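Practice problem: predict the structure.
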Amino acid sequence: MKPGTIALLEQKFNEYPFLKGGEVPREEIDQAAAALGMAFPRDYVEFVRRFGGGIVGPYPIFGLRKVSAMGRAFSVVLVTTKFRRQQWPGTDKWIIISEDHAGNPIGFDADGKVWISDHDFGQIVQIAASFEDYLRKECLRV
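Answer:
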């Protein structure tokens, strides 16, 4: 990730430490990616390694560490598995990293593009070119 993005995230999490989960070793991140059958993009790996998961702006970012403010759903592995079992359109090819406020899954594909599967409109829409782009545009709004 760009230094400016990391600085913004660190500023937010230093101000509100209960919104992040905590550091994760690279080996654990690689195991989660293997369990889901898809490599994680570098920007997402860096986020999870540094912060574990968190709430960024108005949205949860699922990772591998519990975030007290997030409730029970926090694990990228468990959330992705849940949406795949429910056969939400598109999610069989994504890693689910977030949800919107209507419960629609947001995930990245094998190329790192970020998508939303909107059940109300029956559409799958690309919302960002990368995880970092999603954080900056949708979550941090910069």
